[in-house]
TrEMBL record:
NCBIfam families: galE
Gene Ontology BP annotations: galactose metabolic process
Protein's gene: galE
GO cellular component, as recorded: cytosol
Keyword set includes Isomerase: yes
Origin organism lineage: Bacteria, Pseudomonadati, Bacteroidota, Sphingobacteriia, Sphingobacteriales
The organism of origin for this protein: Pedobacter frigiditerrae
Protein name: UDP-glucose 4-epimerase
Length: 339
């Protein structure tokens, strides 16, 4: 039974991926420093799966600590690397925080495991900036990033690609995913932002339940059908399953040792469409206002997912209704069971 290290495994996407790895028969080791997650999530994972991942609390920017961890875990067969700061707006205000954390952690992981590892890297559609054509394919030009966060993903991909070019034993798949939303059907894990949410869906659910005031739609004068920005929203469980599919691909991959895949639904939804979908699927009325555009945001982006559908033998199964209803069920669970 292969053992997979999940960095940031107590986080939003990481925790769902740990559950899906267990479902697929893998052993799991989680590393997290809880800078943007909660230790109780490990208990929730155990409630869902009946299994508890091996865990180490670790700052991946601490080179000595990462090296010591790697020496104690020589039986790890693969790594899924989530651990990174991810808020676009914050990255604009604090770029050095993002460059330090997102690069040091990646470099330390690769170095500590002697570059002889199967690695799935958590990348992002932000590497495309504002695409020239939609849906955007993996062969599209990588433009100047719209934010320091996006730039960290671009440069991290370059680091991995250039390292793979001179390290045949290193096998990497970078998953460029779009906007993960929703929660596990059990409502035991979901997005758990610290402080004011930076992402649309948790702000919607917190507003609906009374934790926040009105939702701000950042811009209604984009060149889109209703004027609001368009994104490709993907259910977090479908996204988690894509990471399992990528690990399986790396176990058999014998050609290129570096590949990139878009992970999304292949279609876009506007902010106002998402608000309407939430109201329709939950019966909750939302209060929202139109605000100015937000620095670092692109107008619209959604991906062509033909390559990932075919090469990874994976496709999304859950739609907007499941995304909204599961996110709402998670919010209601949190109200009854505060973390």
């Amino acid at each position: 039974m292969a053992k997979i290290l999940v960095t940031g495994g107590a986080g939003y996407i990481g925790s769902h991926t740990v559950v899906e790895l267990f479902n697929a028969g893998y052993e799991v080791v989680v590393v997290d420093d809880f800078s943007n997650s909660n230790p109780k999530i490990l208990d929730q994972i155990e409630k869902i799966s009946g299994k508890r991942p091996e865990f180490a609390e670790l700052d991946l920017c601490d080179e000595k600590a990462v090296n010591a961890f790697a020496n104690q875990h020589k039986d790890i067969d693969g790594i899924i690397h989530f651990a990174a700061f991810k808020a676009v707006g914050e990255s604009v205000q604090q770029p050095l925080k993002y460059y330090r954390n997102n690069f040091y952690s990646l470099i330390n992981i690769i170095t500590a495991f002697n570059s002889k590892i199967k690695l799935v890297f958590s990348s992002s559609c932000t590497v495309y900036g504002q695409p020239d054509t939609l849906p955007v394919t993996e062969s599209a030009a990588v433009k100047k990033a719209e934010s320091p966060y996006g730039n960290t993903k671009q440069i991290a991909e370059e680091i991995l690609q250039e390292t793979c070019a001179v390290t045949p034993d290193l096998r990497v798949i970078a998953l460029r995913y779009f906007n993960p939303v929703g929660a596990h059907k059990s409502a035991l894990i979901g997005e758990l932002p610290i402080g004011v949410p930076q992402n649309l869906i948790p702000f919607i659910t917190q507003s609906a339940i009374g934790k926040r005031g009105a939702i701000t739609v950042f811009g209604n004068n984009y060149n889109t059908p209703d004027g609001s920005a368009i994104r490709d929203y993907i259910h977090v469980v479908d996204l988690a399953k894509a990471h399992v599919a990528a690990i399986k691909k790396l176990e058999t991959q014998s050609n290129d040792n570096y590949e990139v895949y878009n992970i999304g639904t292949g279609k876009g939804s506007s902010v106002l469409e998402i608000i309407n979908a939430f109201e329709k699927s939950t019966g909750e009325k939302l209060n929202y206002v139109i605000g100015a555009r937000r620095e670092g945001d692109v107008e619209q982006t959604y991906g062509d997912v033909t390559k990932s559908n075919e090469a990874l033998n994976w496709k999304t199964e859950l739609g907007i209704e499941e995304m909204m209803s599961s996110a709402w069920n998670w919010e209601k669970y949190l109200k009854a069971n505060p973390f």
